[in-house]
Amino acid sequence: MEDAGRVRRGHFVEGLSGAQFAQLGAVDRLRASRTGDERQPFGDGDARVLAAIDPANPYGALLAWPEGLASGDSRPRRVPGAWVILVGGVPVLYASSNARHVLTLADAATDTRGALPVAFRALHRLPRGPRPRLVTVETIDEVSARESPHRAQRWRRPASSATTAA
Hints:
Strand content: 15-25%
Order of helices and strands: EEHEEEEHEE
Shape: globular
Radius of gyration: 18 Å
Largest sheet: 6 strands, mixed
Distance between the termini: 61 Å
Number of helices: 2
Oligomer: single chain
Helix content: 10-25%
Number of domains: 2
Strand order of the largest sheet: 3-4-5-6-7-8
């Protein structure tokens, strides 16, 4: 496929060894999606919702899951129905197959760009089955959602920074 000009070979994913292949336009789209300023806060468009077993999700297969607050049986796993939410290409939230149990994979204390609020807002984008369903988060990091320190946070979209003159 490379000789035919349908794919390009290179090293596209940092941390993975060996030859990697991508379709011709994919490399250009990846380069265009980079943000120029790493200090800018994340926006809702920076979140990606992937099935945990999706081949596009390297975590739990090629790469280790980031260290979160959960341990033991509640660690993220690649199981059918589970979801991972990436913000800026980094996994930030893991939702169980029924989305009742959520694990944070980013440290709120060091989250200077607002990845956690963006990821929590992306929970409403979890794909639904043929019938609409209500997603009710019961636990966050193995703590009741009512007692979680994340409950005090406001995960609503930030107000527009543009102001109008009166």
